Amino acid sequence: MLRLEGLTKTYRTGDQALKAIDLSVPPGQVMALIGPSGAGKSTLIRCINRLVEPTAGKVWLGDTELTHLSARALRRARREMGMIFQEYALVERLTVMENVLSGRLGYVGFWRSFTRRFPQTDVDEAFRLLDRVGLLAMADKRADELSGGQRQRVGICRALIQNPKLLLVDEPTASLDPKTSRQIMRLICELCSERGLAAIINIHDVALAQMFVSRVVGLRLGEIAFDGAPTGLTPEVLTSIYGEEDWEATIQKVEDDEEPAEAAE
């Protein structure tokens, strides 16, 4: 599905955000990307869809090599990569439905998108997605009337209506309270399972990652410091990723609080 070969990003300042990253994510796998601030997590996600241009290396999505595509070909390829943002990236003056349908802009012509005249099949799918995430009654509300958790659910719907093969999720719970954070992580994992979607979730909350995903990759200073099951995140491994801390307390919290991913709140 997704394959990174020697992915490197060096900024003009000389700072190297990513150092020859080799990584593969198979179809249907949800992977958490952890690490301290400045480790390169957001840069990695944005290099995949070329919101940030890699300095070197290759990114493969299926049989398509993304790093040398023309602008037009890249626009087509981005249809297969849904992006969910930390700050939601909604147009606040538009309704929930209009924000969800904006995920179809890569498929409809300019005038249809300009006048917001989407095919009925797209509208029907938007209603189905909103129903799935519990926001059907909010379809006509403006985005600026929603809570943080509701906005993130709209962002999830907008990404999924693209019918992507891969989800790139950048800090989906950073602005949310603990209960809503669990609900959002659970929802993302459930939807990926239902649709056979691969996903990379950049997340700061180690305990939350351990609760919901089957694979964790830890970055430190632009390099992979850990790649394995959440159970492999021992105090020694977490220290190698983040530095010295009382990691036994974090691990104990996961053991005490862990809930099955499919459980309903």
Describe this structure in words.
- The structure is a single chain.
- 37% of the residues lie in helices and 22% in strands.
- The chain is α/β, with parallel strands linked by helices and 265 residues long.
- It has a domain at 1-80 and 166-175 and 200-265: Rossmann fold (3-Layer(aba) Sandwich).
- The strands form two sheets. A six-stranded mixed beta sheet has the order 6-7-8-3-9-10, with helices on both faces. Strands 2-1-4-5 form a four-stranded antiparallel beta sheet.
- The longest helix is centred in the last third of the chain and has 18 residues, at 178-195.
- The protein is globular, with a radius of gyration of 19 Å.
Q: What order do the SSEs take from the amino end to the carboxyl end, as H and E?
A: EEEHEEHEHHHHEHEHEEHH
State the name of the first-level CATH class of the domain at 1-80 and 166-175 and 200-265: Alpha Beta
Strand content: 15-25%
End-to-end CA span:
32 Å
Note the total helix count. 10
Strand order of the largest sheet: 6-7-8-3-9-10
Number of strands: 10
- Give the low-pLDDT segments: 259-265
How confident is the prediction overall: mean pLDDT?
89
Which outline best applies? globular
Helical amount among residues, as a percent range? 25-40%
CATH architecture of the domain at 1-80 and 166-175 and 200-265: 3-Layer(aba) Sandwich
The H-level CATH homologous superfamily of the domain at 1-80 and 166-175 and 200-265, spelled out, is P-loop containing nucleotide triphosphate hydrolases
Helix/strand-derived category reads alpha/beta
CATH topology of the domain at 1-80 and 166-175 and 200-265: Rossmann fold
Radius of gyration: 19 Å
Can you summarize the main beta sheet? 6 strands, mixed
> What is the multimeric organization of the chains shown?
single chain
